Amino acid sequence: DSDLSMRTLSTPSPALIFPPNSPGFQNGRGSSTSSSSVTGETVAMVHSPPPTRLTHPLIRLASKHQKEQANIDRLPDHSMIQIFSFLPTNQLCRCARVCRRWYNLAWDPRLWRTIRLTGETINVDRALKVLTRRLCQDTPNVCLMLETVIVSGCRRLTDRGLYTIAQCCPELRRLEVSGCYNISNEAVFDVVSLCPNLEHLDVSGCSKVTCISLTREASIKLSPLHGKQISIRYLDMTDCFVLEDEGLHTIAAHCTQLTHLYLRRCVRITDEGLRYLMIYCTSIKELSVSDCRFVSDFGMREIAKLESRLRYLSIAHCGRITDVGIRYIAKYCSKLRYLNARGCEGITDHGVEYLAKNCTKLKSLDIGKCPLVSDTGLEVLALNCFNLKRLSLKSCESITGQGLQIVAANCFDLQMLNVQDCEVSVDALRFVKRHCKRCIIEHTNPAFF
């Protein structure tokens, strides 16, 4: 950070973008980053802008034809920026070293609405500090153009790096730090407190994160400061193993605008946590509690309070859910489009019947590893859910070719069918292929190809 180059207008060196056998920085469309391999780690490097002219005693004078302006230099700035927006990181940085005009275009704010960093060896904290400092050049200490930061699988990201983002990027709308297990509640608190426009937050795999709120004190955790609420609508807390009902209660009280919530493998969540959730977050459209083994039919009764707002529900491998829970969902959530109930062994043909007759607009259904579902349930499903596009019956021991034929004869728009480990004949699979020509069949029958 004390390098002389840090005190000048600068751009990443193209020679230091991707060191050999190192993942380097990556960016989405309209963004770029850089990296260098130093002592076994990857860090952000910057250099001063290129000179306006290059002189060297060994350089021969160019011919008259070579002195003519290149065709690409005749393009206006907005066209050049549009071209640059499609370039990968290393090429964009190389373009920044061509001449002063290209340097200025490469650092145009429109190309820096997104920063994307990936790789386990990257010194992310320093990289974020370098990049935000450069982007704050025109507006000291504040980066107004940056709206998205995606840092996936960067295990060296710490609370210090997130604090840099929180301090410098008040217009941040999307933050993804999946797999960064060194992140704690303190860092998340800084971000949600200083970035009021944040709508999308992905902390999946951040096992230390147990709460998201605007207050630090436990005694006022359910009372946001000055009545303020967190504007997050999309929250992914997959694999946040330490999250408990109390933490979910706090999250619900502070994030009342949630529409998408994913709690996959949050194994400590129970029906009580879902009850808290339904009290505050009444606008949820998509919800996943897959592998939450303590969620039961009582939890389904709470989720059913979302009624017609619920479109996506995943309860995979929730072994305590039976036909009773499915009946709650079917009765009140009539506009459900997606249901993943794989591994819920308590679901039978009766549960499928409730679902088919009440959720007729269902498009995707996964009832794999439900051994009590048979051809009878498939027949009712096929006669009521004509819009079905994806159906998974993997390892359903009671399913036969007769049930598949009924589905194929009624669900012409079927695009994916999974019958792996099912005892179905080749003739039945061929029947499905004839009637559902766009359907991709996943199977384990070596005689069918």
Provide a descriptive summary of the structure in words.
This protein is of the alpha/beta class and 449 residues long. Among the domains are: 76-111, Monooxygenase (Up-down Bundle), CATH 1.20.1280; 298-312 and 324-339 and 348-448, Ribonuclease Inhibitor (Leucine-rich repeat, LRR (right-handed beta-alpha superhelix), Alpha-Beta Horseshoe), CATH 3.80.10. The chain is built from 15 helices and 15 strands. The strands form 2 sheets. A 13-stranded parallel beta sheet has the order 3-4-5-6-7-8-9-10-11-12-13-14-15, with no helix packed on it. The chain has a two-stranded antiparallel ribbon with strand order 1-2. It is globular.
**What proportion of the residues is helical, as a percent range?**
25-40%
Q: Ends: how far apart?
A: 60 Å
- Please give the oligomerization state of what you see: single chain
Order of helices and strands: EEHHHHEHEHEHEEHEHEHEHEHEHEHEHE
**For the record, what is the CATH homologous superfamily label of the domain at 298-312 and 324-339 and 348-448?**
Ribonuclease Inhibitor
Q: Which CATH architecture of the domain at 298-312 and 324-339 and 348-448? A: Alpha-Beta Horseshoe
Q: Report the total helices.
A: 15
Keywords: Cell cycle, Cell division, Cytoplasm, Cytoskeleton, Leucine-rich repeat, Mitosis, Repeat, Ubl conjugation pathway
Region (Disordered): 1-38
Subcellular location: Cytoplasm, Cytoskeleton, Microtubule organizing center, Centrosome
Domain F-box: 69-115
